[in-house]
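assembly run, all chains below
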Amino acid sequence: MSENERYFGEYGGMFVPETLMGSLTALEETYDKYKDEKDFLEQKEYYLREYAGRETPLYFAKRMTELLGGGKVYLKREDLNHTGSHKLNNVIGQMLIAQRMGKTRIIAETGAGQHGVATATIAALFDLPCTVYMGEQDTQRQALNVFRMELLGAKVVSVHTGTKTLKDATSEAIRDWAANFEDTYYVIGSVVGPSPYPRMVRDFQSVIGIETKRQIAEKEARMPDYLIACVGGGSNAMGLFYPFIGEENVKMIGVEAGGKGTDTPHHAAAIGKGSPGVLHGMKSYFLQDEFGQILPVHSISAGLDYPGIGPEHASLFESGRVRFESVTDDEAVEAFEFLSKTEGIMPALESAHAVAYACKMIPKTRKNDIIVINVSGRGDKDVYSVAKHMGVSIND
Amino acid sequence: MTRIGRRFAELKERKEKALVPFFFAGDPDIDATYELVLELEKAGADIVELGIPYTDPLADGPVNQAAAARALKNDITLTDILDMVKRLRKVTQVPIAFLLYFNCVLQYGVERFLQGCEKCGVDGLVIPDLPYEERLRYTEIFARHDVDMIPLVTPVSGERIEKIVAGSSGFIYCVTSTGTTGVRSDFDTDFDRFMSEVAAHTDTPRVLGFGISTTAQVSKLKGYGEGVIVGSAIVKRMEAQTDAIVMIEDVAQFVRQLKAAQR
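ok done. output:
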């Protein structure tokens, strides 16, 4: 493996303890051996089609288009994937790799719980024991997903260290992996971590962009003008963007979590307000102080509540290929309501960030522009958080 | 050659092994760290390894994570710790190594940090999240400074060992077992095989660390390599004492026992 393939420009790499280097290079070898192999691809296709329910629709949002008064809005409906988000696309791929490596135990980190649920689901399907690390704060705001994982047979470990969110859950999963790498496979849920994870997760999520490209060609006989997706670690955005990177006229926008405003300390805009650093095995952009201590971050959406971003996004930001914006908690909640009421689609709070930015941008676009928004997940899990944010009590 | 290299030469002459206590700088505060380094030298520490507190210590178990968090509560910074070492150098020549995560180095500036180490008297660096593949990018900068880059090898490093230890100085940090730092009751590593594997590729002294916590373990492992690091067991003792003077005496007493077990 050449060093170039472990880096995206200046970003990426394998900044992990020596204990894990053997496991990572073994994963790298296995992935490269199977990623284009016929049996592997057929098996992956089979589960994506028969089990996850792909392909997901590219839905023309007529009412939203009319209300916003700009270009034509299409929604990529990843919320209709089994388990309710794009996360399953990646987990299916990684579990087939884990199987080929002969691993008998599965671990994962999770923020909102969507990746945890997806991992617990496939672990149940493949009859493998599964442990999911989740920050204590997230186990509280996403209690429903904790119970879902437990119903699926997974063990959920609440992480009490640090900021008690996704960052700390990721660290704890890496520690478990370092202790148990011989039998354990670590399913990372986003385009983050040491190489080869960012490119592997990107490849598995690229099905989103590949389908979108085909679907928009069928519906409009041309490429879209804008792609909009939310970014925490950035897997749903990377999955949508990647197949379009060579299409120079397609503008891509990643929407970060602006929390209570990027002029306050309470946000998670790693690109907007962060700087290059190293954490969780990768060189990328992080929110940190001048001594490299990672700053506490905030987002109403547990899935975006992470101080970093995937290294390929960092590279695409610096090259100017992808533009990064942010929206606040308030704007995301407003978009959550807006999409629910105009299209009858309740997006995940993560995805609501993409919708919120789209709502701001679209009125300024031309009528014949085509905008694709990635609805990366469904919002059922967020109903409590939204109610709380709106000051509504729904406890029975 | 740094103080670390010279210390190993002296120890070899005296047919002794190195005892390397580890704890976090700034736990519970920087003055306690200053005193503790001096007391541990008197108690028999041959090299002192100081952890630089970090918000996200990936390679560390719960005991060290808690200690780092305690130190960070006091807003301790890398600059404060370098300044403390500079003050220590007026009164002691005990070799000092830092254990720190790469982001701390990167944000301080790799060149600026190495200059700071030389100027203040830090002899070596252990960077647990900088495997040799990534270290290679900084080879030239590291080579320009008289600071030992102390590489880590593990019982599962296998054929990687040769590349890891190439061009090393100071010592080789030989990780006793997989997983994170923390007290272990027993090791299932074949130390004969592991330590001779390392020796086959380098003359740099080999020091065992991770989980070594009792005098019995130190005594049992004294035949392997050129020294041992005792970390979490010390950090745990520090956590248990609220009074700094009592804490320093307790840790010094423990280090005296460890050193005796090594002889």
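Residues 18-34 of chain A form the longest helix (17 residues).

The mean pLDDT of chain A is 96.

not gonna interpret more than that til we talk
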